[in-house]
Amino acid sequence: xxxxxxxxxxxxxxxxxxxxxxxxxxxxxxxxxxxxxxxxxxxxxxxxxxxxxxxxxxxxxxxxxxxxxxxxxxxxxxxxxxxxxxxxxxxxxxxxxxxxxxxxxxxxxxxxxxxxxxxxxxxxxxxxxxxxxxxxxxxxxxxxxxxxxxxxxxxxxxxxxxxxxxxxxxxxxxxxxxxxxxxxxxxxxxxxxxxxxxxxxxxxxxxxxxxxxxxxxxxxxxxxxxxxxxxxxxxxxxxxxxxxxxxxxxxxxxxxxxxxxxxxxxxxxxxxxxxxxxxxxxxxxxxxxxxxxxxxxxxxxxxxxxxxxxxxxxxxxxxxxxxxxxxxxxxxxxxxx
Length: 337
Description:
Layout: E1 6-12, E2 25-31, E3 39-48, H1 52-56, E4 77-84, E5 94-97, E6 104-108, E7 113-115, H2 132-144, E8 152-155, H3 161-172, E9 177-182, H4 185-194, E10 199-202, H5 208-215, E11 220-225, H6 229-238, E12 239-247, H7 268-271, E13 275-278, H8 288-300, E14 308-312, H9 317-325, E15 332-336
Parallel strand pairs: 8-9, 8-11, 9-10, 11-12, 12-13, 14-15
Antiparallel strand pairs: 1-2, 3-4, 3-6, 3-15, 4-5, 5-7
Helix pairs in contact: 2-3, 5-6
């Protein structure tokens, strides 16, 4: 294929105050670079937009550096190698990498992963169920919360990319009951009828503690937290003794410039001997091989299902990101270039 002289990328134009808007992004045209030794030029085909990106739009200290103003943003992406200066990859290879938010990416070959388009799953799976979101779900349940047979498991944000996988893994690993929360009646139906959750509720229908207590009359043993806020407070209220929480994210507060008050029932942690542990998937890539070895057969056998919400057009990347933060997606949100 002919490589163009110029291509487009999205840059962070300003830091959002609350919910991000189109004005926080600049679409600019830049020269397409030529790969040097150890580099590959990738024509991106799929981009991932993820909740953690909202945190990186703030100029605050965190586990990952903030996005710089007037520079291209980054994130998970998948595409075709169109020029190579590395003996690891040849032209035509499909690779996953972390230089999304642009049409063409100059990637250090050491940071790219070759994926097989003929492996029996669609390419988007390597940015979702078999990628960082799937591994996040696996790490949180298997290593952090140490889910075991017979546990009652509650997953918040259960219709998203991470939560939908977490609930299914819990069930596949022997949980006696899996409960999910979501933000619409359609998502509740999806969790129960398509993903096999034992119970699910729309958190907009009432007090989350009351809704969770009704769904888990015998309490919960494990909580996979994607939401924080009132969901974390509800989980603490409904936990059984020795309950374990894997704290993955707090999307309910990602757009808050002034953090909301924390759970008001933290005293229960002592009496009920609860364990609440935060984790980052970045610290657990040693489990990637084990995860894919376990998840691959589940996917092929139809036991682990997944869904993608795909937005067409590179120019719509900010819109996809903003809509993902608002919960418009079911499963993984992707942008198709």
